Give the backbone structure.
Amino acid sequence: MSTDILDRVQTSTPQDIRHALLVGSEIAVIDVREEHDFAQGHPLFAAQIPLRRIDEEARWRIPRLDTPIIVYDDGEGLAHKAAVRLEALGYSNVRELEGGLAAWLHAGYELFEDVNSYSKAFGELVEHRRYTPSLAAEEVQALIREKADIKILDARRYDEYNTMSIPTGTSVPGAELVLRARTIAPDPDTTIIVNCAGRTRSIIGTQSLVNSGIPNKIFALRNGTIGWTLAGQELENGQTRVAPEVDDLAAIEARDHARDVAYRAGVKRIGWDELEAFKADTARTLYLYDVRQPRDYESGHLPGFRNAQGGQLVQETDHNAPVRGARIVVTDTLGPRADMTASWLAQLGWDVSVLDVDWSTVTLEKGPDGAPSPRGPEGRYKRPYEGTDNKAAAMQAYLDWEYGLVAQLERDGTHGFYVI
């Protein structure tokens, strides 16, 4: 590569990034280090694409070639190489963060640890603002022992549930909760307990059920499987319990309740004409997501829509939509999953719409969406809430970090979140 090409990459300051975030301009702030290094500290709305994966991931995750992109590292010399590589891929508005992470800190701005940090911080804000009800692991264990009238719903991906789960728990991934809870617990006297591995998905799942008007008593399992383990209680492994299918009446009822939640969150509803207008708007990035489970998506989906389970789209928004300020359109066959997902994305500050159309009028596509291959273990951050071999100190440190996120959001001042 010639020197003149290497020298042409322009720079942006931390103040430029903050301004774009505050005024709502599109911006992709990309950490090009490995995930483990990213997890040690990064700006709130940064996404992570390691230098070695730019060719595989960039066009998928940042689809508009004139998106304003700012790349950074922590002085390792990766950002300049990444900027040159992005330009070679056709991106026309790439800049380096002048001074890297050190400059960000010197400007007095916050660094957030872990991965999916802003979604996790949002979950803590939801609990803080809505006083989302929860029960400690010991209390839930006592209810199980007493054979109380309870249903435990695991809001994680099925594979996470299958690896380890709370005794008697059933897999009901996040966006499925409002659709299926009334079928799982038809008696309003049944207590529903929602769990995840740590805190975020159980808080969001529990609050989803509360927001949608489920009449049952509903609680989050405080601190999820981490809290269960730290309490010295045994988890189950290899379980396969899944939620039953819902009948038409239950689906309609769930749709009505979910639509009301989306309305309160300010979600827009669009049809084919509006979707085509969004696609034609070359000045905005557009992400299209079918929020059903992978098996349902692969059996038939609308052309152009990628797959991200609704709960995971809310949990991992930085991965699925790294361009802050972009548009997001979500859809599903029945409605409740898209409406509940959109309600949370709206509260996270996204311009989000639900595509509300008759699927029977389209040549559905089948199979996976063509997403880049999984990254593998190289440079991966070891999450203290996944798997069965985590050290107690790491799990406790993770919980302590989550408890501090609301205060860190306040110091940062760029989030734009609201809670209905």
About this structure: The radius of gyration is 21 Å. The longest strand covers residues 150-154. The CA atoms of residues 306 and 369 lie 5 Å apart.
